[in-house]
Batch of 3 targets.
Target 1
Amino acid sequence: MAEPVVNPATQRYAVVTGANKGIGFEICRQLVSEGIMVILTARNEKRGIAAQERLKEFGLSANVVFHQLDVLDPASIASLVEFIKAKYGRLDILVNNAGISGIKIVGDTLILQEIIKGDVASVFDGGKPESVKLKASGTITETLEDAEECLRTNYYGAKSVTEALIPLLQLSDSPRIVNVSSALGNLRANDWPTQLAAYKVSKAALSAYTRIMARKYPSFCINCVCPGFAGTDITYNLGPLSASEAAESPVKLALLPDGGPSGFYFYRKEISSF
Ligand SMILES: NC(=O)c1ccc[n+]([C@@H]2O[C@H](COP(=O)([O-])OP(=O)(O)OC[C@H]3O[C@@H](n4cnc5c(N)ncnc54)[C@H](OP(=O)(O)O)[C@@H]3O)[C@@H](O)[C@H]2O)c1
């Protein structure tokens, strides 16, 4: 595939977090294909550089640079901000994609598929999610430490990165923020989750934060999206969608035209309620 032609006058710059694999990697690949200059970030330098190398296999190496970013580490966030400021002078698109599940599974991982399918179905059908009798024999554990790390990564990490990059986004003509949330974070009255609790709370908080930030920055387009159930490491490769298919909706929101929706939750490519 030929390298996209770069027009310096109209070049747009994007940061994607947690981009060394899965949906984040695919978001980078699709944005680069659209001619966006992508700063592919990963907490682990080796894995991030390997991802940058993999993009070369698609003939897409010129429009991507790697920078280390651990969303839990303020020094790492500050270093990314300085890098972008010095090299590009502004930022146009931020995709907060990095995330963890906050759980460990012992035994049959199909248990996760059953829970997610049941939960997501209940979001759309209005049923009670956790009353479904599970068939898989695996066990899910959620320790306090895992729960804390999950909240710190999925919500506070995205918030810290966003707040640090807002001044550079304000220098853009068309700033976009996309928060990769989850249908598992949809709110249901009188229901405190007993499974995947930290993950659900972290994504509910991220979706609410999206709405607050959209009100605070009316000249931005700031949205969150559940990309659908995809076969990646976080789902033990159990989801039916490919990472590439799941990446399409965050990419669409990253490339929204001026005057596009802001403050919304999308389920894949459609506006939904959370
Ligand atoms: N797959 C699905 O069905 C699905 C559905 C709804 C929402 N999502 C959301 O989509 C996003 C991407 O998930 P995925 O499916 O692509 O899972 P994945 O393949 O497990 O990718 C998660 C990415 O987040 C990175 N990450 C974790 N902690 C980080 C930190 N502290 N700093 C920077 N990066 C960090 C991981 O880096 P390492 O490689 O170093 O661990 C990895 O690159 C997540 O926010 C997830 O919650 C996924």
Target 2
Amino acid sequence: MKLFGFVISALVVLSVFGNNCCCAEKVRYDNHTVYKVLIENENQLTIVKHLSTLAKGYNLWKPFHGIGSDAHIMVSPKMKNAFDSLMELNGFEKEILVENVQSLIDEESSSFERDATFGWTSYHGLDKIYAWIDEIIEENSDLITPFTIGKSYEGRDIRGIKISAKEGNPGIFIETNVHAREWITSATVTYFINELLNSDRAEIKNLRENIDWYIIPVYNVDGFVYSHEKDRMWRKTRQPVKGSDCIGADANRNFDSHWMENGGALSDPCAETFAGPKPFSEPEAQALADFVTKIEDKINIYLSFHSYGQYLLCPYGHSATDFPSNYEDLLAIGKSAADAIKKPYGTQFTYGSTGSVLYVASGTSVDWMFNERNIKVGWTFEFRDKGRYGFVLPATHIKPNAKEAVEGVIALVQKSSDLGYLKNKRVN
Ligand SMILES: [Zn+2]
């Protein structure tokens, strides 16, 4: 353990020098490598936990849920030797997922906003997405009502649209891109909106005519803009944290439902899953909670789009051993969605409760809606892939991923309806 202590101290000291460049320039990820490491014992778990809180030189891509799980960790070139030694000394099994993150980012940048008009062969920034939202609002004024849930820390409007063909429909809320670097999520939801508005397919017409949709295409607007302009790997909000040099919190750990319980978030402001100094410290989380509270009785299903890992996750997030009373129904819904997602391209999604299937995550929006707002069907989608590209999923995946998501949502809604969750007047 002495040696372990020494290596950890060395990592802390080295990490100061393992910093990415800062300030005005874009952060570069030349020769940053993403490793998948298997956690097989307590000692290894302690080490990975520690690495995940080091802001400099390390970045956790996929969190872990204890012994038997794996973590995906991006390591800067300056930290690679120390990382390799640490892995070897402690008997870690590891493999490389992404050799050089910057080369993926360069490829992505070369096709950025390539579409002459708004489309789904390249990724788009916030301005372009909002301009497209304005266009569809104008073209579909009979169907779409715009709304704003509030302002982000940096003062941007957090915009949404309601798509409603008639009075009295049950409602589904979709919130997307709370984690800034998960660009595939807003690309997918805009595709989904386009299908809802224009498709002649009977299943989609049914969704258009008989459901009210409340959709926020980019929820963490500040983080999203920052991920485009400064740091492609940015995840959190952009509100400074008192007493720390690290910025932002994980808005999806900031909701006041089992906040910070069971290790499902971290109190270290430099961690990617920093829960914030207190529940609803982030204006974005507070704004969403306030908005949904006002329309709670109109919402039957709550969906949150994320990447990556190919999971469908329902409550609870705060516990790996505690399950909601309607868990059997939720599993039936999850199975329907996973089966449907698999149909177009054979892509496999794993479904089940967040805590038992992926990792304990407390204070998430889906859990808050479920526990505090009586929205009894709540799902987190973790889209493509399983780590080959991770957050920098090539734009060629947008359409296939979106098509799978459309199939998944159709099946999820159908099964929820079959099980009685789309009744207009929900009984409390
Ligand atoms: Zn996410």
Target 3
Amino acid sequence: MYCYDFHVVLQEVPGEVSLCFTISGCPLRCEGCHSPFLWKEGSGRLLTFATYKDILYRYRGFATCVLFMGGEWHPNTLADFLKYAQETGYATCLYTGLNAVPESLARYLTWIKTGPWDASRGGLGSPDTNQRFTEVATQKNLNHLFHKKTRL
Ligand code: SF4
């Protein structure tokens, strides 16, 4: 898997400090995609297992979750990476444009964001969104965690 970029993020998984790996090669081609630079397989740097392990080790005790933006098109590699994250004490999350992923991936996920980008319906913060943020173990929809609180 090639990683286009890596950041520590605070908003994408509510309540978690997440190590966010953005994977290149997205085959979905959503109309109005906000990140078409991710379509080309091989963009960025090869994310070796050794590099990945080193990053997870360095952030232990600070970060709490490992988040993949895409990568489900490398199901075996992604499953291995997620499994390792769980074994080392991290929660895990995948943002995918698919509406579902195989059980071989879902079993290593704490949360999943599903659904393609649809500009007319907006992202997770929109009440009209087609996307869904799910707690995998319970299948609970947690979209409400992304809605902005209005002040009275
Ligand atoms: S899933 Fe995301 S990166 Fe892939 S085409 Fe859709 S909006 Fe773009």
